[in-house]
């Protein structure tokens, strides 16, 4: 029996050594990808959602203007998600809409409906880094951040907003992206994003996006109710405030077509 206990103890120590060695040999790229995969996995299965959104634009002098929108989203597990954003007010932007088909491996498809012109305008791939409706959010920021759109690298751990976070770097694989790289903070408990630093093509810090006021839906899905995008180079900022978030409302592909973009009121 003593010999058997010695053998068992020896095997246990050997296994622990193997696991420790494997963890130590994990590259920053492997660890960064593993963190991104886990964050992506936790968001799967929501099917569809609707929400009301307030966008607050601030110029460098602190002067504000508000825009009110409705946002719909449809999950597609075989490809990127679809979304439809429609402006409700003020009058000068009412009924303007943005339809986005995100893709995992190809460039995203985006169309902008301009009611004054009564036509749908396709957003060219080379223009995705441009500002959306005068905000500090680019068109590419509004597409679903599919896992396959980036390469990843773990950087370090850091506590922000009282959250113990992984900090990873993600590099866009899309050649027309306006960003050279992004540094992202995700908490270790729930893999929620709390902060993203965006670096322009010259590798200078361009913008910082911070998320606040997370709430849990359907006992699984965390959603932020407040986000702030600050442009460090212009002094401008944009705040997004989400309200009345609902899941599994019965939306289908029919609700996300160019025809539905013009019909939405």
From the spread of the alpha carbons, the general shape counts as: globular
Q: Return the CATH architecture.
A: Clam
How many angstroms separate the termini? 78 Å
Global Rg = 22 Å
- Biggest β-sheet: count, sense, barrel? 13 strands, antiparallel
Structural class: alpha+beta
Low-confidence stretches: 1-9
- Compressed to H and E, one letter per element, the order equals HHEEEEEEEEEEEEEH
The oligomeric state of the chains shown is single chain
Helix run count:
3
The neighbouring-strand order within the major sheet is: 6-5-4-3-2-1-13-12-11-10-9-8-7
Total individual domains: 1
Look at the structure and give the CATH class.
Mainly Beta
Q: How many extended strands?
A: 13
Strand content: 35-45%
What do we call the CATH topology? outer membrane lipoprotein receptor (LolB), chain A
Calculate the mean pLDDT score and round it.
Answer: 90
CATH superfamily: Lipoprotein localisation LolA/LolB/LppX
Secondary-structure map with pairings?
Blueprint: H1 2-24, H2 28-42, E1 48-58, E2 64-74, E3 82-89, E4 97-101, E5 109-114, E6 119-122, E7 150-160, E8 163-172, E9 179-187, E10 193-200, E11 205-217, E12 221-231, E13 237-247, H3 258-263
């Amino acid at each position: 029996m003593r010999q058997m206990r010695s053998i068992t103890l020896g095997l246990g120590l050997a296994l622990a050594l193997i696991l420790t060695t494997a963890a130590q040999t994990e590259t920053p790229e492997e660890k960064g990808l593993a963190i991104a995969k886990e964050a992506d996995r936790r968001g799967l299965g929501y099917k569809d959602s609707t929400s009301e959104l307030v966008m607050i634009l601030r110029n460098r002098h602190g002067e504000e203007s508000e825009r009110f929108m409705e946002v719909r989203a449809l999950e597609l597990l075989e490809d990127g998600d679809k979304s439809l954003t429609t402006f409700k007010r003020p009058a000068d932007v009412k009924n303007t809409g943005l339809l986005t088909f995100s893709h995992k491996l190809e460039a995203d498809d985006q169309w902008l409906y301009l009611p004054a012109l009564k036509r749908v305008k396709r957003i060219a791939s080379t223009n995705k880094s441009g500002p959306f409706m005068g905000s500090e959010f680019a068109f590419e920021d509004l597409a679903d951040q599919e896992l396959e759109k980036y390469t990843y690298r773990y950087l370090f751990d850091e506590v922000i907003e009282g959250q113990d976070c992984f900090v990873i770097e993600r590099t866009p694989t899309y050649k027309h992206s306006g960003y050279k790289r992004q540094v992202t903070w995700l908490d270790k408990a729930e893999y929620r994003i709390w902060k993203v630093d965006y670096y322009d093509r010259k590798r200078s810090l361009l913008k910082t996006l911070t998320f606040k006021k997370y709430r849990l839906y359907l006992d699984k899905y965390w959603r932020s109710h407040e986000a702030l995008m600050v442009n460090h180079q212009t002094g401008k900022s944009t705040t997004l405030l989400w309200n009345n978030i609902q899941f599994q409302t019965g939306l289908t592909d029919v609700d996300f077509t160019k025809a539905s973009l013009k019909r939405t009121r």
